[in-house]
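Run log, item B.
One chain of 338 residues. Sequence copied directly from the ordering sheet:
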Amino acid sequence: MEKDFYNILKDIRNKVLHTVYFLMGEESFYIDVIADYIEEKVLTEEEKEFNLSILYGKDTDTPTIISVAKRYPMMSSHNLVIIREAQHIKNIEDLLPYIRQPLESTILVICYKYKRLDGRTLLYKEIKKRGIVFEGKRLYDNQVPEWITTYVRRHGYRIGPRAVQMLADHLGSDLGKIVNEAQKLFINLAKGKEITPQVIEENIGISKDYNIFEFQNALGQKNVLKAYQIADYFANNPKSNPFVLTSGVLYQFFSKIIMYHSLTDRSKNNVASALSISPFFVKDYEQAARNFPASRAIHCISLLRRYDLKSKGLENETTNEGELLKELTYNLLNNPTS
């Protein structure tokens, strides 16, 4: 059967266990968490000595896996077998005979990262029939803020839209990285408290005033002084604010301004849905659209493409990325449409 991430963890916590778990997909975070949770919860520390086997796809094969899976537990109710990096196993379909007749006392966990098993295969169908199939799908960038909000709330904290966007813009869609940084916040904040931009700056080091989200807003508002200050800050801190990340976020920003201009229904909910943003930020795009008519926004997209090529050395042999960003900022704010 197929189950979602939180239901699988809930079942494991409640000792509702299955003989086979096939964990696959592009997002390895979910796979690691489920496998680690099974390893932590199914056996006691004493039981693990004789009943826990961890194998790696590059160093094992299907006959070995079947042999280990067919062992009976010693002084325990379960034999736990975890296959890490199972995507490297050759002829994984040869596990089919075991999957059809699994040992009830064995829990076989197969971690098949960055790929997915074809749903049309017999192996997939038999695993789905007798155990758990889970696919960890990589989030799109526009899904990250909602994921962060849900994760933070599940851990008993509050977070507002601006703080969420700070984290999403800075950390991207790497869930492992997001969770690691969120844990720093949880450690230093009492349950029930709100994670604010100030808290993020103090504990993670993302400036609440000089970050890509504030840079985007300064450009949208045509706040020239603030935009130049942030561009200068980025230029002086290139490792924390790489040009490729900055230009990528701005490309999405101006693309959404163009999309806004194409909408006939500009109600808050429709704009939020069409642009894949929180309703909280609709007013920011309304203002940006007033400052950047469609033709001007299209020109800005052209500028971003040009400077992206320059950052990679095309028609540019001497100017560093910091100076390129300052030049780009000036042109985004001042160049007439051409």
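Observations after the first pass:
- The mean pLDDT is 93.
- Strands lie at 20-25, 52-56, 79-84, 106-113, 132-135, 158-159, 194-195.
Flagged for discussion on Thursday.
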